[in-house]
């Protein structure tokens, strides 16, 4: 089931009513409801893969208890490895097996040996596997690092792993935040529910109006890049930047908003990354839950920045390459990760990687300074350029795309593949950027205006825009489901 | 919780109300002309109506229509006489042309090419061969004065019945309930942009699951059924011809041979029914011939059809002294 489907709009109010009206007084019953609803939510996509979620839940539930019961560090570590090997193994098999086989065959052929790729399997990638395996692993890590006491309430733990608002595409929650909320009584709050509904509305807008509207053009340009002039390729990758942002941040907003309806606060996953002033700030604002995960469980254990500069650079490279690989079993993602590492290192060496941590562009004024504007445009340009790797089908296509931009620069007007007016989309993007700039100081309140009248006008415009750009023929799945 | 429910209802009502106003201000949805069945049992539009046809979420296609005194969308009135050359285009929505300005129809395009010729467009969405022949039969006097009659047909839709009667399903659209619903422009707009497709599909899926499983046909059975259907349609065609007659010298079909079974084309050839095939002409076009939001011909598509008819008329016209 996906958030932007009719099924979800029947499912969500049903679960909401049961949760607050029928099971309101019993925490355990509410948690069982969350668990059942989550399994139904996932099972409607493919019920067979529920077994993987259950298995992952069982393993980490048991591993955490085991780790906690042991004092000896080596034994604790051994049990931690059980969790890591199991979860990474699960990911490895379902997500990376064919990639490794194919890469091995390709590598051997480089040395002149011909080998047929007969070991590849027809493996279906279970939706959300990268997200829930990381979430369960983080639980075992936290117990291992003694940041958390393991729970003995299996049903609540299972509800934490499979919590449907964030099950298939995050935010990747840490147990210290989500599990603790699931274990404690939730109270209905009018403000929290309204805030959740607003986030759902804003998330839907980003998905339906921004991401889905741009998708046909992006698909067309990336598929037929060899027949388009360079100006169109630049347009295509810029549109992809907005598409992927609208798609993923839209999903996250709906997830966070949905969780709020059940009295649960999830962590923010996006904080206006398009207004970042350098690549480091961008990574503090884009897919925050994944960046946080890698910082806590990879970067810091490797020594983080508290080691020599050279080792820190090594750590940065590892984090970005692994992060790229996490996105998908394709060299394009590894190049994408590598590119970001290269863009991040100079910022790190100049000591500017944390300077924008607690501020936003135009912090004390409404308009940004010229310097800030330049920084934002440069960062957006770098990030957008990296997305050529992210979006291309293969590394050859990515380099073909780049090559065409730099060696054959020409201009040509682009026509929508279905013949729609292009001006509509240009206006849409400009207005979206302006609006996001206005609300840039609070990612969790997209409609934070004092006047009720202004808020009402904006709700109406948002809903009208969704109608104006709605297309019943478009594939409406979310991009990050494939990861 | 009570506050939430009250506010949700209140906001929903206000937003729906605002959207209704916006849809009306920006004219985002189409107008519906009134239909009726005249004293001869012919279904058509109430005379002398004007309005706008809109397609696409963002009014991508916006065109005015004008229903003339006879009840069809046309810039001209139908006044055939013996001393002029007239062509009648009879057909469904493709001839009706609500998706184009009524001054830019196929008929007008033909008139621009054939000096002095008048083209009468008897187009009505959903007209099949039974509707068309019944119309011609009921208005014999008018059609007797018309020199050429082009009948637009689509095999899969237009031969489903062997005798004429008023299509009640279409006339239901004139019932008070439907009329009232059409006053709610937001609802019309939502329907037009396909917002109800998913709920309909979902309900359809739920209802048809068992039926589908029980009635799954093999490929051979499907082919057999298809053959049977073609024969049935040809029988319907013969039945209609027997009832209403068919002037082979004056009448000509306009069809797409790619969407017409070979059996039927052979039948037409064998019995010397003339037809104009637009399949090749549209296929040859390098630019799109249909609209973005639906399958109707766009301006270019209509020009191609007009040229096809014009060429045919030019070749066949003999009786009048007209300079082309």
From TrEMBL, chain A:
Main location: membrane
Enzyme class: transferase
Bilayer topology term: Multi-pass membrane protein
Keyword terms: Acyltransferase, Cell membrane, Membrane, Transferase, Transmembrane, Transmembrane helix
Pfam families reported in the protein's UniProt record: MBOAT (PF03062)
Protein origin, superkingdom: Bacteria
Spans traversing the lipid bilayer: 6-22, 51-67, 79-99, 119-141, 312-327, 423-440, 452-470
Keyword Transmembrane helix: yes
Protein name according to UniProt: MBOAT family O-acyltransferase
Keyword presence, tRNA-binding: no
Compartments (UniProt record): Cell membrane
EC number(s) per entry: 2.3.-.-
An annotated Gene Ontology molecular function: acyltransferase activity
InterPro entries xrefs: Ac/AlaTfrase_AlgI/DltB, AlgI, MB_O-acyltransferase, MBOAT_fam
Family, similarity comment: Belongs to the membrane-bound acyltransferase family.
UniProtKB/TrEMBL annotation, chain B:
Cross-referenced InterPro entries: SGNH_hydro_sf
Keywords on record: Membrane, Transmembrane, Transmembrane helix
Transmembrane regions: 6-26
Keyword Transmembrane helix found: yes
Protein name, as recorded: SGNH/GDSL hydrolase family protein
Species for this entry: Mariniflexile soesokkakense
């Amino acid at each position: 089931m996906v958030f932007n489907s009719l099924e979800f709009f029947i499912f969500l109010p049903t679960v909401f009513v049961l949760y607050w009206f029928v099971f309101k007084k019993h925490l355990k019953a509410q948690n069982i409801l969350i668990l059942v609803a989550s399994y139904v939510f996932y099972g409607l996509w493919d019920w067979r893969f529920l077994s993987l979620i259950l298995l992952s839940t069982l393993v980490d539930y048991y591993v955490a208890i085991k780790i906690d019961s042991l004092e000896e560090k080596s034994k604790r570590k051994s049990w931690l490895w059980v969790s890591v090997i199991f979860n990474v193994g699960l990911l490895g098999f379902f997500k990376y097996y064919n990639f490794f086989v194919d890469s091995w065959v390709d590598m051997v052929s480089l040395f002149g040996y011909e080998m047929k790729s007969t070991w590849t399997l027809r493996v279906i990638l279970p939706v959300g596997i990268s997200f829930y395996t990381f979430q369960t692993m983080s639980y075992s890590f936290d117990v291992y690092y003694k940041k958390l006491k393991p729970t003995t309430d299996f049903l609540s733990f299972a509800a934490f792993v499979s919590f449907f608002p964030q099950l298939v595409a995050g935010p990747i929650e840490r147990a210290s935040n989500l599990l603790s909320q699931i274990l404690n009584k939730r109270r209905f709050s009018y403000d929290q529910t309204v805030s959740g509904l607003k986030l759902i509305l804003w998330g839907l807008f980003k998905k339906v109006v921004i991401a889905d509207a741009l998708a046909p053009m992006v698909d067309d340009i990336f598929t037929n890049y060899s027949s388009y002039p360079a100006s169109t390729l630049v347009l295509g990758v810029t549109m992809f930047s907005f598409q992927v942002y609208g798609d993923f941040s839209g999903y996250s907003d709906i997830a966070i908003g949905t969780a709020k309806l059940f009295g649960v606060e999830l962590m923010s996953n996006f904080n206006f990354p398009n207004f970042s002033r350098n690549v480091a700030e961008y990574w503090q604002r884009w897919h925050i839950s994944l960046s946080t995960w890698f910082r806590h469980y990879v970067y810091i254990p490797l020594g983080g920045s508290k080691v020599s500069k050279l080792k820190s650079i090594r750590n940065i490279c590892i984090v970005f390459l692994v992060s790229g690989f996490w996105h998908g079993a394709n060299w394009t993602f590894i190049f994408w990760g590598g590119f970001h590492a290269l863009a991040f290192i100079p910022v790190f060496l100049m000591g500017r990687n944390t300077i924008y941590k607690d501020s936003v562009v135009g912090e004390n004024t409404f308009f940004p300074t010229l310097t800030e504007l330049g920084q934002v445009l440069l960062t957006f340009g770098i990030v957008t350029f990296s997305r050529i790797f992210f979006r291309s089908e293969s590394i050859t296509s990515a380099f073909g795309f780049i090559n065409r931009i730099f060696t054959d620069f020409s201009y040509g007007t682009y026509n929508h593949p279905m013949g729609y007016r292009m001006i509509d989309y240009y206006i849409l993007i400009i207005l979206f950027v302006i609006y996001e700039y206005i609300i840039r100081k609070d990612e969790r309140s997209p409609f934070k205006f004092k006047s009720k009248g202004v808020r009402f006008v904006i709700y109406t415009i948002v809903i009208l825009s969704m109608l104006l750009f709605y297309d019943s023929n478009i594939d409406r799945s979310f991009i990050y489901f494939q990861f | 919780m009570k506050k939430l429910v009250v506010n949700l209802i209140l906001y929903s009502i206000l937003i729906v109300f605002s959207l209704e106003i916006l849809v009306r201000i920006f004219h985002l949805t189409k107008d519906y002309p009134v239909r009726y069945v005249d004293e001869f049992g012919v279904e058509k539009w109430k005379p002398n109506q004007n309005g706008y046809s809109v397609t696409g979420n963002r009014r991508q296609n916006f065109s005015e229509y004008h229903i003339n005194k006879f009840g069809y969308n046309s810039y001209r009135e139908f006044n055939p006489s013996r001393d002029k050359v007239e062509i009648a285009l009879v057909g469904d929505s493709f001839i009706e042309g609500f998706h184009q300005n009524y001054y830019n129809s196929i008929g007008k395009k033909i008139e621009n090419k054939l000096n002095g010729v008048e083209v009468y467009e008897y187009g009505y969405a959903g007209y099949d061969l039974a509707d068309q022949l019944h119309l011609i039969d009921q208005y014999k006097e008018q059609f007797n004065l018309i020199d050429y009659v082009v009948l637009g047909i689509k095999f899969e839709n237009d031969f489903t019945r062997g005798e004429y009667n008023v299509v009640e399903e279409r006339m239901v659209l004139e019932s008070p309930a439907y009329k009232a619903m059409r006053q709610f422009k937001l609802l019309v707009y939502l329907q037009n942009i396909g917002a109800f497709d998913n709920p309909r599909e979902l309900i359809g899926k739920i209802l048809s699951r068992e039926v589908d499983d029980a009635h799954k046909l093999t490929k051979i059975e499907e082919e057999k059924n298809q053959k049977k259907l073609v024969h049935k349609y040809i029988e319907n065609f013969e039945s209609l011809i027997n009832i209403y007659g068919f002037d082979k010298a004056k009448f000509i079909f306009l069809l797409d041979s790619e969407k017409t079974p070979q059996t039927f084309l052979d039948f037409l050839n064998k019995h010397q029914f003339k037809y104009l095939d637009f399949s090749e002409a549209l296929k040859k076009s390098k630019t799109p011939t249909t609209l973005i939001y639906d399958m109707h011909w766009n301006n270019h598509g209509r020009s191609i059809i007009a040229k096809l008819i014009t060429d045919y008329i030019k070749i066949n016209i003999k009786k009048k002294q007209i300079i082309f």
